[in-house]
Amino acid sequence: MGLFRYYKKLGERAMEQCPDDALFIALDVESNSIAIIVKHLAGNMRSRWMDFLTSDGEKPDRNRDTEFENPPQTRAQLIEMWERGWKYVFDALEPLNEADLTRTVTIRTEPHSVMQAISRQLAHYAHHVGQILFLAKHLTFKKTGKWESLSVPRGKSADMNSKVAAGKASAQETLFSSKKA
Question: Mean pLDDT, to the nearest integer, of 134-144?
Answer without folding.
Answer: 98
